[in-house]
Every structure is written in structure tokens, then in C-alpha cells.
């Protein structure tokens, strides 16, 4: 199966170079604000090193082995580069190239004295989150009114209403990397109580090109008697998407679907906006701020409720080095067997976002009608891992479409394969690993 590629030259020369320039600017801005002379002096060397990476990208230089920065993963990175063979920024496999770029950034920071734990993308993440004010306040309102204050998640309501609520909350997590909530069903309390929301749910799901939501619900209902139901969520972006993921985790706990939820973060800044451990507290600092979110009516109820889940241990975070390697998830069993075993023992493993989807499917240009189970490889049939992918389509890879006829229809509706790239279509793909 060939690896998926974006327009390599455009990606390398434009987007990657722009990301590196952003790190140069960020270090300069932070250094200008800092009173520590040694830290400020060291920032100059870091900016020069970042600029060298940018030049290498722009001039399509060969990728070179990573220099030792004291971290145990350097040897694995260099082995993978050697296995690929001689390649440049443009000619290398796209996914490896982008992962390598972020590891280069971190190597420079790791080799410093004063900047080792610095989040090079925090300023950008914070700025983006604050722009999602209306969506955050709206979701806080809906959660407190529909889920928390009414007991709708518990046994007081009909099974069909619970199913609709699950679909709605799952869609909130699915579309969480966009602050436009117009794609949601927007169920009201009355919709759920009188079972009037079916049509709204169906309408909101028309852009989900592989929708296994019914299968997920059937699995959860069939196994609801299990004593331990830990759900793992492998996170994608910080900010608004992290807010929707924490909200989704709270719903899974409030509804009694999960007995605990574990959020998987990256160990260091990755793909600009991916969640790292410090982003969790940063999320709460923003939610507590009346300057960021002035409409406090529902946030003042919701935020302590979310904090309590963390304080009680029902909601926890973890990081594994595997998430910041160049390997696809097909290689997890060989490269991170302990993590693989943890996910086998998980009640449900939810993978968020585009990068995780690329890694789940080995970044392969599968025919779109390929089954999700086949594309998962070692995480599919007989793996014992219950894998749910929630992903809006933003790049070339997409599997699980029911038929070629459906693919043709989508190509008519969104010419030029726009339905796999424009972020307006999505997948809710589930495999039980049996």
C-alpha cells in the first residue's frame, strides 16, 4: 500500500518553513519579555539553529541523523531514517518528514539549558482558544442544561433518548477541531424527552462518510455490566478541541458508560497544537478567566464539576513516548508492547483527529471502500483492541466508505476529492478487534 502524500514541495517550502519561522519569532518574543540574561542570550543560539532547519527545508537539503540530545529515542529515529535511505525534505515520506521536523525542533530545545521545558507553540494555542468564546459558552450551557442538571445521562430517560444523547455528544467530540457548531443536531431537552431528535441527528450525520455510531452504541449496551470500563482517549488538539474532549469524557462518566477515562497527551510540543500535559491546566486557567469567557452563568457550574473528575481520579492524563515517534500504529505491538497491552485492556480506545487517523491506517492510500478493519492492520481483526476513530477529513487518507457508488456520489457532491480534504466531512469508524 503506497504512503499517502500531500503536495510535498508546497508542504515543505511553504507550510513547514512557515512553522519554523513561527518558532523563531516566538522564541524572540519570549526572550524579549524575560528578565533572565542567560536565558535571553541562549535564545539567540536557538533562533539560529531554528533558522538552519528552515534553510534546509527551503533548499531541499538531505535529512541527516539526529544529534544526541540525551533522550533515548534518538537511536530509533536514526534507524528509521537509515531504513528509508537517502532522502531530502521534499522526497522523504510526508508523514516521516513532518514528524522529523518536530523532533528537530525539540532536539534544539532539549540541548539548551534554559528552554528544555518551553512550549514553543503555547502562545499560538492560547490565541486560538480565546477566539472560540461563543462556542465554549454555548457548549457549557447545553451540557449543564441537558446532561448535568436534568439527569438525562442516567436511568430516568428512555433508551432511545440515551442513544440520541450519545450520538450528539460523540458528534461534539468529532467536530471539536472546528468552532462552528452548525453541523451538530443541537438537540434540546424537549427533543430528547419526547424523542423528537431523530430527524435532527440523521440530518447532522449526512456528512459522516463512514458512520459506525450505531455499532459503538450496541457494543456499549452489550458490555455495560463490566465492572471496569476504562475508556482511553488519544487526544489531538489543545484549546477548543481539548475542551470538547474533556466535556465528552465528563459525559461518559456522568452517563455511567465509563467508570474512568484516561486522556493520552504528547510528551512534548508536536504538530503545533497537539495537547501536552501543561495544556490541561492551561485549559482550566482560560475557563476560569472572565476576561477570556465573560458569560459565566454556566461555566461557573461546569468548571468545578470538570475539575472534580480530575481530583477524584475518575479522569486522568498519561503520556507515552510512542505518540511522538515516526511510527504508524501498525508498529505499536513491536515498538511499544506495554502500550499495546494497555489498549487491549481498555474498554474503548478513542483516537481523535487527522494525525491519529493517518497513523491508524499506516498513512496508506487505500481505496476508499477498504474496510476500516483491514486498514487497521494489527490493530484490527483479532487484536483485542476496541478502536474508535473520530476524525474530520483533512487529507488524502479515508477508508470505510460503503460502496464505490457512494464514493462516486461524494465526488460529485464535492468535486476533486474535496470531501477527503476540506474538513466538512468526517468518519466515526469503529472496530471491536474480534
UniProtKB/TrEMBL annotation:
User: Which InterPro entries does this one have?
Assistant: ARMT-1-like_metal-bd_sf, ARMT1, ARMT1-like_metal-bd
Annotated GO biological processes are: DNA damage response
Q: What region holds the Damage-control phosphatase ARMT1-like metal-binding domain? A: 11-410
**Pfam families cross-referenced by the UniProt entry:** ARMT1-like_dom (PF01937)
Is Coiled coil included in the keywords of this UniProt record? no
What note about domains is in the entry?
A: Subfamily III proteins have a conserved RTxK motif about 40-50 residues from the C-terminus; the threonine may be replaced by serine or cysteine.
| UniProt-recorded name of the protein | Sugar phosphate phosphatase
Native source species: Penicillium decumbens
Amino acid at each position: 500500500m503506497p504512503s499517502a502524500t500531500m503536495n510535498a514541495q508546497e508542504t515543505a517550502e511553504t507550510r513547514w518553513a512557515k512553522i519554523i519561522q513561527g518558532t523563531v519569532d516566538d522564541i524572540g518574543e519570549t526572550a524579549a519579555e524575560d528578565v533572565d540574561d542567560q536565558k535571553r542570550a541562549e535564545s539567540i543560539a536557538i533562533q539560529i539553529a531554528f533558522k538552519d532547519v528552515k534553510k534546509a527545508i527551503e533548499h531541499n537539503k538531505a535529512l541527516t541523523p539526529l544529534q544526541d540530545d540525551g533522550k533515548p529515542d534518538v537511536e530509533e529515529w536514526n534507524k528509521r531514517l537509515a531504513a528509508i535511505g537517502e532522502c531530502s525534505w521534499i522526497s522523504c515520506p510526508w508523514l516521516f518528514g513532518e514528524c522529523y521536523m518536530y523532533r528537530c525542533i525539540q532536539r534544539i530545545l532539549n540541548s539548551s539549558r534554559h528552554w528544555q521545558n518551553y512550549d514553543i507553540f503555547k502562545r499560538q494555542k492560547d490565541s486560538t482558544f480565546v477566539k472560540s468564546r461563543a462556542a465554549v459558552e454555548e457548549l457549557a450551557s447545553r451540557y449543564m442544561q441537558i446532561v448535568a442538571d436534568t439527569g438525562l445521562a442516567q436511568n430516568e430517560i428512555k433508551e432511545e433518548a440515551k442513544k440520541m444523547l450519545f450520538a450528539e455528544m460523540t458528534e461534539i467530540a468529532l467536530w471539536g477541531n472546528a468552532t462552528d457548531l452548525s453541523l451538530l443536531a443541537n438537540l434540546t431537552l424537549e427533543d430528547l424527552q419526547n424523542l423528537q431528535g431523530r430527524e435532527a441527528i440523521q440530518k447532522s450525520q449526512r456528512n459522516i462518510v463512514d458512520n459506525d455510531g450505531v455499532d459503538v452504541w450496541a457494543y456499549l449496551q452489550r458490555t455495560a455490566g463490566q465492572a471496569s470500563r476504562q475508556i482511553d482517549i488519544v487526544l489531538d488538539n489543545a484549546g477548543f478541541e481539548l475542551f470538547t474532549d474533556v466535556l465528552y469524557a465528563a459525559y461518559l462518566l456522568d452517563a455511567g458508560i465509563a467508570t474512568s477515562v484516561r486522556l493520552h497527551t504528547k510528551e512534548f510540543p508536536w504538530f503545533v497544537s497537539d495537547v501536552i500535559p501543561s495544556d490541561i491546566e492551561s485549559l482550566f486557567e482560560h475557563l476560569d478567566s472572565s476576561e477570556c469567557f465573560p458569560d459565566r452563568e454556566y461555566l461557573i457550574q461546569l468548571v468545578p464539576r470538570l475539575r472534580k473528575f480530575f481530583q477524584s481520579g475518575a479522569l486522568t492524563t498519561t503520556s507515552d513516548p510512542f505518540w511522538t515517534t515516526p511510527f504508524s500504529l501498525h508498529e505499536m505491538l513491536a515498538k511499544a508492547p506495554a502500550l499495546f497491552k494497555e489498549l487491549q485492556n481498555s474498554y474503548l480506545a478513542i483516537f481523535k483527529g487527522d494525525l491519529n487517523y493517518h497513523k491508524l491506517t499506516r498513512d496508506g492510500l487505500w481505496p476508499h471502500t477498504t474496510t476500516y478493519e483491514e486498514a487497521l492492520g494489527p490493530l484490527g481483526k483479532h487484536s483485542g483492541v476496541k478502536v474508535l476513530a473520530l476524525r474530520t477529513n483533512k487529507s488524502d487518507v479515508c477508508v470505510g466508505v460503503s460502496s464505490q457508488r457512494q464514493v462516486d456520489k461524494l465526488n460529485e457532491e464535492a468535486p476533486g476529492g474535496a470531501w477527503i480534504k476540506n474538513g466538512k466531512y468526517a468518519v466515526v469508524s469503529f472496530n471491536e478487534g474480534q
